[in-house]
Amino acid sequence: MPASTNAVSLPAHRRRKEARPAELTAAALDLFVEKGYAATRLEDVAAAAGVSKGTLYLYFESKEALFKAVVREGLLPALAEGEKRVAEFSGSSADLLREVGWGMWQLIGAQRIGGIPKLIFAEARNFPEIARFYHEEVILRGIALIRSVIERGVASGEFRPVAIEPMIPIVLAPLLMRMIWRHSLDICEAARIPDESYLNGYFDLVLHGLCAGEVQ
Amino acid sequence: MPASTNAVSLPAHRRRKEARPAELTAAALDLFVEKGYAATRLEDVAAAAGVSKGTLYLYFESKEALFKAVVREGLLPALAEGEKRVAEFSGSSADLLREVGWGMWQLIGAQRIGGIPKLIFAEARNFPEIARFYHEEVILRGIALIRSVIERGVASGEFRPVAIEPMIPIVLAPLLMRMIWRHSLDICEAARIPDESYLNGYFDLVLHGLCAGEVQ
Amino acid sequence: MPASTNAVSLPAHRRRKEARPAELTAAALDLFVEKGYAATRLEDVAAAAGVSKGTLYLYFESKEALFKAVVREGLLPALAEGEKRVAEFSGSSADLLREVGWGMWQLIGAQRIGGIPKLIFAEARNFPEIARFYHEEVILRGIALIRSVIERGVASGEFRPVAIEPMIPIVLAPLLMRMIWRHSLDICEAARIPDESYLNGYFDLVLHGLCAGEVQ
Amino acid sequence: MPASTNAVSLPAHRRRKEARPAELTAAALDLFVEKGYAATRLEDVAAAAGVSKGTLYLYFESKEALFKAVVREGLLPALAEGEKRVAEFSGSSADLLREVGWGMWQLIGAQRIGGIPKLIFAEARNFPEIARFYHEEVILRGIALIRSVIERGVASGEFRPVAIEPMIPIVLAPLLMRMIWRHSLDICEAARIPDESYLNGYFDLVLHGLCAGEVQ
DNA sequence: GATGAATGAGGCTTCATTCAT
DNA sequence: CATGAATGAAGCCTCATTCAT
């Protein structure tokens, strides 16, 4: 993303070469999310990225390394962007929570990377190292984001003085759950849930649940 | 054969034969939840159940059939018990919601079958048939349970007149998410969340979010 | 077959017990002929004979032993009967050859044991011991039968003075081939050949081929 | 890729890739003929072709596909050659029959593909589709060949006016039987028959059986 | 760098054989 | 004797990984 302007000046095959890892992780993400780690074949990943099986090994030393790259690189840019938005926000805490919720949805949930949580929860036990990384680098930062919002609201008197720590994962849960659902049971047409009304209901419940007086 | 009504009179190997499928699905559940479908080796399932690889095939015709049996038989009894409790309940809607929430936790979340949701969400795309079954037989019944609680509260004036349908999965989400979490990121000690405070926070948020006046 | 009269005096379950091996070899013959040795499952053999898998091992110590029994016991009675008929025969050598040919067809080819040649030719290399047994006990006796017929005809001047030894397997071939065909390509409707016209054509060719003057 | 018409310019591994299927079917033919379909292990086939187990699956998608390739590709070239020889033949019908008989023996019976008939007759019931293919593409063409010879001889008055259709499989039988025998009971030294005298006896019998006057 | 043929360890599944009842 | 549950060796097949071109 940064310095995308000078890419134009590079010869085409060079640009291609530099883009390869990202093309591969993108293809791998889709397949890992769809089939899970074990059921994903590297040959399919390579084919989806338009290269041969051997080429994949020029960029990633093993299936596990590819998996880690997918998970490591997936959410961090979106998280950073979310943190920036929050830092720059000025307005009511209710609106801030809406900003955070919609932001998580637009930057993550509605993107391909929105499949990563499903992947993580599915594979955490097989890759404890990944689980730890993910917890520290992603979950804790998401938690910090929510915490800052709730603390801000409680401090300003806008929110009730709730027990903050346990509340954080609870507030996070419906957003995460929606992401997971979208990549699993949503394949059943009957189980599909529209995002708009889901998020509106979410804010309705959570803000009424948190606000001291009227929800603004 | 003789006196088949009296289990005691059955020959030992016959009693064994009747218990085997349950022993096998129990072992399989643990391993499927821990490792996922693809990464679970049938030999390990058999060993965990104390039998040899071949024995498994006397009771289940394939790995997939075993998986389906695990999922099919897992939650249905607990669901039925939950529905019974709700039907027999008399008290405030807030207490009913607490009853349902704790019930789901005690009957499902805190049991081994509490790993099934993780399994389902992880494998739904690989087993669309299972996904459909699970949605129809489990999810819809859970939804109906929550719906009846919210409708009851709204009808009695205890709850605000919220949009009920979108609210259901939102109310369900923190419970499901907790079950999933328990079988994935909970392996990170730092990510572990105590059930008691989680559920208390959950009821605090949801009941404040739903109730029209004071939460009872 | 011998002493079949006193069977009546035995208690039923005793008769059953004595009949078991024959019932098992009969069932095994059908399946071996249909599927070949390796593809035949002992469970299917037992089921076809109406007993359990374990029972089979009370009478035959292994799959190979069962196979040998099938082959050993199959053709010998029919051969003996054929030899008896030839010994008692008086008439022209042409008629004797017709008698032998029809006899082989009626006593063997048209019976279930008519599948044994296909079985032998298919499995001879896997069971050299069986092949040797079969050659010595069955083939050589069949050859001797044909030889005696040809020698008789040549001696009487009815047949041309052909080279007898090479002629024997040639004369035998169409009969064997018909038996094999019947248990293989005859499953293609289009490949089915009527026995009557086949045998008539056979005698027409062979007798014209052997006879010195007019065929009688 | 470059100059694909010139095999010499192809990279070695490419030339190898093109030769592999034939090397594999050749190895498979030997083993299928020797042991039968079910008793042949793909690992042995691969080893006989000098490759590993996995390589086989680069060229044939299953054991059954390999089997079909062996049967499909085996006899067709030899048949075509045989048909060509017959079409170009000019001479007496007796000599034509000798030409066909010897041709079948030299082009098929004496070659490795001479084991295919044994294989087909042994496995026809397990592979009805193969049986149909074989009947239509091979047997019927062989029958047509013999029919044309007999019809030619009857038309010219050289052969008696026999019933042609039933005669065809009878005339074919000793040749087929010899091929089958060669790959089965010939392992018994005592059962071995010299080809030369067998074929001479065959022509002696069949031509005396068919010819109207003296055999030429 | 890029390719794709080759490898072989490993998992699912079958089935001959055993043995407690 | 008869049963059928249990075993485990063995075969088919997949796929992550390597390496010659």
Distance between the termini of chain A: 36 Å
Q: What is the arithmetic mean of pLDDT of chain A? A: 90
- The helix content of chain A, as a percent range, equals over 70%
**Strand runs of chain A, count:** 0
* Shape label of chain A: elongated
What count of structural domains of chain A? Answer: 2
CATH C-level name of the largest domain in chain A: Mainly Alpha
Greatest interface (CB-CB under 8 A), with counts per chain: A-B, 59 and 58 residues
- The second-level CATH architecture of the largest domain in chain A is Orthogonal Bundle
SSE pattern of chain A, N- to C-terminal: HHHHHHHHH
Count of individual helical segments of chain A: 9
> Tell me about the biggest sheet of chain A?
none
> How does the helix and strand content of chain A classify structurally?
mainly alpha
Strand content of chain A: under 5%
Q: Oligomerization state of this entry?
A: homotetramer
- Indicate the radius of gyration of chain A in whole angstroms: 20 Å
Q: Are there runs of chain A of 5+ residues with pLDDT below 50, and where?
A: 1-8
* CATH third-tier fold name of the largest domain in chain A: Tetracycline Repressor, domain 2
Explain what you see.
The structure is a homotetramer of 216-residue chains. Chain A is mainly alpha-helical and 216 residues long. Chain A folds into 2 domains: 51 residues, Homeodomain-like (Arc Repressor Mutant, subunit A), CATH 1.10.10.60; 136 residues, Tetracycline Repressor, domain 2. In chain A, 70% of the residues lie in helices and 0% in strands. Chain A has 9 helices and no strands. In chain A, helix 1 packs across helix 2, helix 4 runs antiparallel to helix 5 and helix 5 runs antiparallel to helix 7. The longest helix of chain A has 29 residues. Chain A is elongated, with a radius of gyration of 20 Å. The two termini of chain A are 36 Å apart. The N terminus of chain A is likely disordered. The structure holds a DNA duplex (21 and 21 nucleotides).
